[in-house]
């Protein structure tokens, strides 16, 4: 008997209601066998449909390798709900079935925890009496100080653990920025609050843990910084990425960088302010930093000068004027274009100054930490100064990363970096922002994770588009792994018996006759909705959803909740459950948020209506660039991008119906293209084998 089957037998003995499914065992053994492969070959991708029980499958498939090889098992998810389920339910139950229980902990980024030192500074800040502070700012400052005092009191009395997510009240984002910190602004062991610090309490727990539950953003941030800063080094980790279909998009967000003018002006002011305090704070090292001060007094004004030059060049461009006047949004700018050519010299000058400032402030941060450790510097001065030095170091380090992307020349043989502009609000002011990012996250993921990690499992209920892993494989940088690394586990559901798929006869098409189709949707909903059951109606457009709702009869609207109204999606689901449990009918009109992450088993959802095929709309600059690259290489964006994406989205939307093996119900799709278009028939062929009904 294999180790996996032995583990499942133990689980079945400990949990009388549990019976391991063949698909679950198949997934688990595939993972366990793959973890025995040589280094850099321990990467597996598993599509496990709803009902397989993938959480227990990947836990049983990875835990023994992790324990035997003394590696940390890091489980990463995309949603808070799944993290809480792992910590509160799945891991405690799984741990109880093992010969020796395992230690596990949930880890979030440092910014999710209060910094007691900064909280104390804010709570004890005297109100500014200066004349140049306006009434609104003064009022905001008074509110912040009052709330900081309350938070400090609650934390000291152990009525709050310092975790932002554990609070029921809302903490103002500007205040939280003041009372939390990042690694550069942290004094570590030298801080007077070190032993009681919420973040370092977590770090001590993490050191002893065999399993860490995290989220994709935290892992990608750590990887972006080289790995090993928040989590152990990737070489010491066996990763499981649950909800892995979200990973490519999130990785692209992390890989892209931006130059924000107002943020840089403010950071340069902070740097100058810090510079005035350094001679007295570090008086005992004065012989060490004379040259640094003279260089920084030269570099900081030069940064302002370069930024002003860059802004001036941008403002003289017609595209930027159109952006500022809101005629366009997020226009792309291209390598070798007159605008980018004009920006190159001032950007190179800014990069040179940024490198110098980053280097010097890194040294200053090191000296402040040493001064605190050796008590050459008072805690009060050091803890107040360090976050400011850290902010300067952080922002200029980020600027260096941006410039590496922005100034990298396009190459014919590889996808070029994408450059674009936007207007954002920062510190309550509008500012121009220059963005630069890779077209694909494939290289970033392969370089920082797949090539380094001890082992990797990527899993989700839906990873294949049109029955193939091809798109996911490309987007995740998994092209060097052959089919032996991929597994699609069959579903445990009997789709033919459990669900019907109805495609009514529709006269109009949503992409060609939208107004007529919209009116036809209203009529069809009136005909097919049973007001006594639980119905989920999915739309791809907020405008269409609201227009359809307005035209529906009162019998339907009286029991319908519309996404974007007064209730949050979570509260909509809660109210829907209460309605159904009380024996009444309930209808949800929802968008993407309801097409993917909602779990309404049994009688909580017996009819899913998909109004339109969920084709992705590629409007973002990186998406447009990817389409152009595919065309340049002789491909077709519709076939390469749109069809696989709509296939995944359609399967996910249909998947809202059956959540357990005992569930049943019906799916209705109000889009005749499934039957009339060649691609529609392809999409239909790759849906689960529902019992098909046509009008």
UniProtKB/TrEMBL annotation:
Record's keyword annotation contains Transit peptide: no
Cofactors that this protein relies on: [4Fe-4S] cluster
Binding site for [4Fe-4S] cluster: 115, 186, 191, 197
UniProt keyword annotation of Heme present: no
GO molecular function: 4 iron, 4 sulfur cluster binding; 5'-3' DNA helicase activity; ATP binding; ATP hydrolysis activity; DNA binding; DNA/RNA helicase activity; metal ion binding
Enzyme superclass (EC): isomerase
Superkingdom to which the source organism belongs: Bacteria
GO biological process: DNA repair; SOS response
Pfam families: DEAD, DEAD_2, Helicase_C_2
UniProt keywords, alphabetically: 4Fe-4S, ATP-binding, DNA-binding, Helicase, Hydrolase, Iron, Iron-sulfur, Isomerase, Metal-binding, Nucleotide-binding
Residue ranges constituting the Helicase ATP-binding domain according to the UniProt record: 10-288
UniProt-listed SMART domains: DEXDc, DEXDc2, HELICc2
Enzyme Commission identifier(s): 5.6.2.3
The reaction(s) this protein catalyses: ATP + H2O = ADP + phosphate + H(+)
Coiled-coil intervals, chain numbering: none
Cofactor-binding details, from the entry: Binds 1 [4Fe-4S] cluster.
PANTHER family per UniProt: ATP-DEPENDENT DNA HELICASE DING (PTHR11472:SF59), DNA REPAIR DEAD HELICASE RAD3/XP-D SUBFAMILY MEMBER (PTHR11472)
Protein's job: DNA-dependent ATPase and 5'-3' DNA helicase. Unwinds D-loops, R-loops, forked DNA and G-quadruplex DNA.
NCBIfam families to which the protein is assigned, alphabetical: PRK11747.1 (NF008729)
Family statement: Belongs to the helicase family. DinG subfamily. Type 1 sub-subfamily.
Name of the protein in question: ATP-dependent DNA helicase DinG
Species per Swiss-Prot/TrEMBL record: Methylophaga sulfidovorans
Source taxonomy: Bacteria, Pseudomonadati, Pseudomonadota, Gammaproteobacteria, Thiotrichales
Gene coding for it: dinG
